[in-house]
């Protein structure tokens, strides 16, 4: 059965059912109006039954029934279904004769329907929802015209009732909504006077219903804005503008406070121009505030992003095009955002773009943010180090749509690190490699086993430069030395500063020995050139020791030691020499090391002895003192000369122990001598350095109980060189103890007559070389005379040492020397032998022929 009972858009049964449902009438209780119609219809047509029948999906349901015992039937047996389908009046004179109904249970049952007349109920929307029908158990020929028109009129009345039922219901709903809504619902008549004012309007505008009704609608708008509003209100009733939507206006409350509102108007009434309008008004202050907040949040965020001190960029993860870059980014890249956005790294940076995009790719593949560091050359050529973290973020179109990048400029950090690295590896003053990195490199070279030459360079006279011109000048010389070294070697080598004035050059090339020799002589020649400094011209020189790897050693220690040996030898050869290491040096060094160990043992065992050599008065020939001279008899080698073991003891830090030991021993021995004989002890300049000398001397005197003035100390001129003030200070302290101080080997060292001004020595010992030459050299004789004159003037005795011949003795005595010492009188002898000698010393002295 085709139920599509309306043309066009109404043709749909589903829509018809929806319209029926929308009426809200199905299954509602009986109503008098409807019952009146069915009663009238039945009566007017003289029929037994009548009904207002509504056809829904499955049944016909009777809104009103007259003479019908049941409230509904199934749809398929309903006569009305046919009227609804045809949308026309349906008359069935005798159902038993009609094929459509003859088997219908409503017909076949006891007292069933024979006659039926139904008029379709068509509502204003055009849908047919049911019928007004009458039926009778008796067949009839049809309806008279009058009956037909009565039935149609009643059907129309039923339709009206159904529709007004709907409107009433809508009205009820609307009233409830209007009461309950938080929106103001306001209506005005054609003159703009308020005729409706809901509770929300009372609250919103702070005006009670009574107060609002009858007032002009402009009341809700502040006076200063009323003109604009008047126009809106004036046209509001004119036409229906479904597109108009909401207007934003400013409202005013009874207390004068203003608030933003949203207003939508719809006309109502009979029709233009007599229409009024209804308005729904919403207070949008909260929404506005939220909007404002959101707006300010956004602009805050924008400001943060723009001013972020790190570069921030966003790229599309697919196209890799930049979507945004902040101001720091613009500055870092050196291009304005307009030139960056919309382009890829490849387009922007032809040289590194690909590598940036590769990083993007890695970031896309990774599950968490990735950080990379990269170097970037700006448009202006300045290199920048970036540390960039990339994270994938979701976008509106798809997850992980964007690459978010934050790049920090770590250039300053990297430069600082480089600086630290340089400080760690290079000597700050000269820029050459420092000692630590030299050791590192040397270690690596040795491990690699490659051939190289190592030149150990020591500056000559550098201390003098420092002393004479000051440290800044010294620094300048060192810097220039470093530069000259760099210049003297080819690119196949490098320079390191490994000590105050010690440098090292490493060469890596072919024909090493030859090249090393060339380099060494170039260096010697170059360093021999004067150095210009702010304080004047300085002169230095270089001594060089050379070792070759692998010939001269297989470990760094061995190589360095052998280089030192070669350097030592070079220095022995005189300044400005270079010397290759050789095996003999090694043997000598080993020998020395062995001797050093033995000396250490001998000192510890107290095996260094003292011999004594007498000193005579030139006037009386009497022994006035004896000089203590150290003697060491090595168990294997026999006697070792003090010229050998004293410097050795000095070099290996044993001189203090030894000096103290000998000092005590000398004092002890002297204690057994006649009391007018003094004892002279030689001191090493190094003994002045520890600061313990004065205490040691005092200790030796007190433990041996000799008179302080019986002790003489022999010091050489060299000692004054190091620390002038402290040396003189100690000499004065010694003098204060009552001790005599002699200056030894006078005339060969760095003598300065000013020393005599600073400190009055008790005696001067003329160096043996003058004594040797007094017979043959007039110059020597003149010098001796001058020293004697000085001694007389300053009240110092003059001792001539190393007197071997009578002729020397005679000349020395004649010249005015006050004391004599030498093989002519006595060799150094053992303590016992000396005691013998002193006891048997004839009053006219030893071999006194000249002294008489
Ligand atoms: P020095 O202090 O100038 O000692 C004099 C040296 O000349 C001694 O040599 C002595 O034996 C030697 N001599 C004395 N008369 C003659 C002579 O007529 N002809 C020749 N050819 N030589 C003579 P020695 O004992 O070998 O000492 C050498 C140097 O060793 C000393 O020179 C001194 O500088 C140092 N020395 C010796 N003993 C000690 C010591 O106990 N302490 C320190 N610090 N140095 C010492
Ligand atoms: Ca001496
Ligand atoms: Ca001497």
UniProtKB/TrEMBL annotation:
<dbReference type="Pfam" id="PF08448">
    <property type="entry name" value="PAS_4"/>
</dbReference>
<dbReference type="InterPro" id="IPR035965">
    <property type="entry name" value="PAS-like_dom_sf"/>
</dbReference>
<dbReference type="Pfam" id="PF13426">
    <property type="entry name" value="PAS_9"/>
</dbReference>
<dbReference type="InterPro" id="IPR013656">
    <property type="entry name" value="PAS_4"/>
</dbReference>
<dbReference type="InterPro" id="IPR029016">
    <property type="entry name" value="GAF-like_dom_sf"/>
</dbReference>
<feature type="domain" description="EAL">
    <location>
        <begin position="592"/>
        <end position="842"/>
    </location>
</feature>
<dbReference type="InterPro" id="IPR035919">
    <property type="entry name" value="EAL_sf"/>
</dbReference>
<feature type="domain" description="PAC">
    <location>
        <begin position="370"/>
        <end position="422"/>
    </location>
</feature>
<dbReference type="InterPro" id="IPR000160">
    <property type="entry name" value="GGDEF_dom"/>
</dbReference>
<feature type="domain" description="PAS">
    <location>
        <begin position="176"/>
        <end position="223"/>
    </location>
</feature>
<dbReference type="Pfam" id="PF00990">
    <property type="entry name" value="GGDEF"/>
</dbReference>
<dbReference type="Pfam" id="PF00563">
    <property type="entry name" value="EAL"/>
</dbReference>
<dbReference type="Pfam" id="PF01590">
    <property type="entry name" value="GAF"/>
</dbReference>
<dbReference type="InterPro" id="IPR029787">
    <property type="entry name" value="Nucleotide_cyclase"/>
</dbReference>
<feature type="domain" description="PAS">
    <location>
        <begin position="297"/>
        <end position="344"/>
    </location>
</feature>
<dbReference type="InterPro" id="IPR000700">
    <property type="entry name" value="PAS-assoc_C"/>
</dbReference>
<dbReference type="InterPro" id="IPR001633">
    <property type="entry name" value="EAL_dom"/>
</dbReference>
<feature type="domain" description="GGDEF">
    <location>
        <begin position="450"/>
        <end position="583"/>
    </location>
</feature>
<dbReference type="InterPro" id="IPR052155">
    <property type="entry name" value="Biofilm_reg_signaling"/>
</dbReference>
<dbReference type="InterPro" id="IPR003018">
    <property type="entry name" value="GAF"/>
</dbReference>
<dbReference type="InterPro" id="IPR043128">
    <property type="entry name" value="Rev_trsase/Diguanyl_cyclase"/>
</dbReference>
<dbReference type="InterPro" id="IPR000014">
    <property type="entry name" value="PAS"/>
</dbReference>
<protein>
    <submittedName>
        <fullName>EAL domain-containing protein</fullName>
    </submittedName>
</protein>
């Amino acid at each position: 059965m085709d139920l599509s009972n309306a043309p066009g858009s109404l043709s749909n049964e589903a829509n018809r059912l929806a319209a029926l449902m929308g009426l809200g009438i199905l299954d509602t209780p009986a109503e008098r109006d409807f019952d009146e119609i069915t009663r009238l219809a039945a009566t007017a047509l003289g029929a037994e039954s009548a009904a207002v029948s509504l056809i829904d999906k499955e049944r016909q349901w009777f809104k009103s029934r007259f003479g019908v015992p049941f409230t509904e039937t199934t749809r398929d047996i309903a006569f009305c279904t046919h009227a609804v389908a045809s949308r026309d009046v349906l008359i069935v004179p005798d159902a038993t004769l009609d094929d459509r109904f003859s088997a219908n249970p409503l017909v076949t049952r006891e007292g069933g329907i024979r006659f039926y007349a139904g008029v379709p109920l068509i509502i204003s929307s055009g849908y047919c929802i049911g019928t007004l029908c009458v039926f009778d158990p008796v067949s009839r020929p049809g309806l008279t015209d009058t009956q037909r028109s009565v039935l149609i009129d009643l059907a129309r009345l039923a339709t009206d009732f159904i529709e007004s039922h709907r409107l009433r219901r809508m009205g009820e709903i609307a009233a409830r909504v209007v009461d309950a809504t938080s929106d103001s619902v306001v209506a005005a008549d054609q003159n703009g006077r308020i005729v409706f004012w809901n509770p929300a309007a009372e609250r919103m505008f702070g005006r009670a219903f009574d107060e609002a009704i009858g007032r002009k609608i402009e009341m809700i708008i502040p006076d200063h804005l009323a003109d604009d509003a008047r126009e809106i209100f004036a046209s509001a009733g004119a036409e229906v503008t479904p597109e108009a939507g909401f207007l934003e206006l400013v409202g005013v409350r009874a207390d004068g406070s203003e608030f933003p509102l949203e207003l939508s108007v719809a006309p109502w009434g009979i029709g233009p121009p007599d229409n009024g309008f209804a308005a729904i008004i919403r207070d949008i202050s909260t929404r506005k505030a939220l909007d404002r907040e959101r707006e300010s949040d956004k602009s805050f965020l924008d400001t943060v992003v723009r001013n972020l001190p790190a570069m921030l960029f966003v790229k599309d993860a697919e196209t890799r095009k930049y979507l945004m870059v902040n101001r720091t980014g613009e500055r870092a890249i050196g291009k304005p955002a307009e030139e960056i956005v919309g382009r890829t790294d490849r387009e922007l940076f032809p040289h590194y773009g690909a590598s940036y995009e590769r990083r993007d790719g890695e970031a896309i593949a990774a599950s968490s943010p990735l950080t990379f560091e990269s170097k970037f050359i700006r448009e202006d050529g300045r290199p920048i180090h970036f540390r960039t973290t990339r994270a994938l973020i979701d976008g509106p179109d798809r997850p992980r749509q964007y690459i978010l990048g934050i790049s920090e400029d770590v250039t300053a950090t990297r430069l600082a690190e480089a600086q630290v690295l340089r400080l760690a590896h290079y000597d700050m003053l000269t820029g050459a490699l420092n000692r630590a990195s030299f050791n590192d490199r040397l270690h690596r070279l040795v491990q690699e086993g490659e051939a190289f030459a190592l030149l150990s360079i020591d500056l000559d006279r550098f201390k003098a430069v420092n002393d004479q011109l000051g440290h800044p000048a010294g620094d300048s010389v060192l810097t220039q030395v470093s530069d000259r070294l760099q210049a003297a070697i080819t690119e196949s080598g490098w320079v390191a500063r490994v000590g105050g004035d010690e440098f090292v050059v490493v060469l890596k090339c072919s024909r090493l020995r030859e090249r090393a020799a060339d380099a060494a002589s170039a260096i010697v020649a170059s360093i021999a050139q004067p150095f210009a400094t702010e304080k004047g011209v300085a002169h230095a020189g270089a001594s060089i020791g050379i070792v070759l790897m692998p010939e001269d050693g297989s470990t760094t220690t061995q190589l360095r030691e052998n280089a030192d040996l070669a350097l030592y030898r070079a220095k022995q050869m005189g300044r400005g020499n270079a010397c290759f290491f050789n095996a003999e040096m090694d043997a000598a060094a080993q020998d020395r090391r062995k001797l050093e160990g033995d000396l250490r043992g001998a000192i510890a065992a107290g095996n260094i002895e003292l011999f004594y050599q007498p000193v005579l008065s030139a006037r009386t020939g009497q022994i006035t003192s004896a000089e203590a001279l150290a003697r060491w008899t090595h168990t294997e080698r026999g006697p070792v000369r003090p010229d050998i073991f004293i410097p050795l003891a000095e070099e290996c830090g044993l001189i203090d122990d030894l000096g103290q030991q000998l000092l005590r021993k000398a004092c002890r021995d002297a204690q057994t001598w006649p009391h007018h004989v003094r004892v002279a002890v030689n001191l090493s300049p190094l003994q002045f350095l520890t600061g313990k000398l004065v205490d040691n001397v005092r200790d030796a005197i007190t433990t041996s109980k000799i008179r302080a003035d019986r002790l003489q100390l022999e010091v050489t001129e060299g000692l004054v060189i190091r620390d002038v003030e402290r040396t003189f200070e100690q000499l004065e302290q010694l003098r204060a103890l009552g001790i005599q101080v002699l200056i030894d080997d006078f005339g060969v060292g760095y003598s300065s007559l000013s020393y005599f001004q600073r400190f009055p020595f008790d005696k001067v010992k003329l160096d043996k070389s003058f004594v040797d030459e007094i017979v043959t050299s007039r110059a020597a004789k003149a010098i001796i005379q001058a020293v004697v004159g000085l001694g007389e003037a300053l009240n110092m005795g003059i001792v001539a040492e190393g007197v071997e011949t009578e002729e020397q003795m005679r000349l020395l005595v004649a010249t005015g020397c006050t004391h004599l010492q030498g093989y002519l009188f006595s060799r150094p002898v053992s303590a016992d032998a000396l005691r013998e000698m002193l006891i048997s010393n004839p009053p006219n002295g030893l071999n006194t022929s000249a002294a008489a």
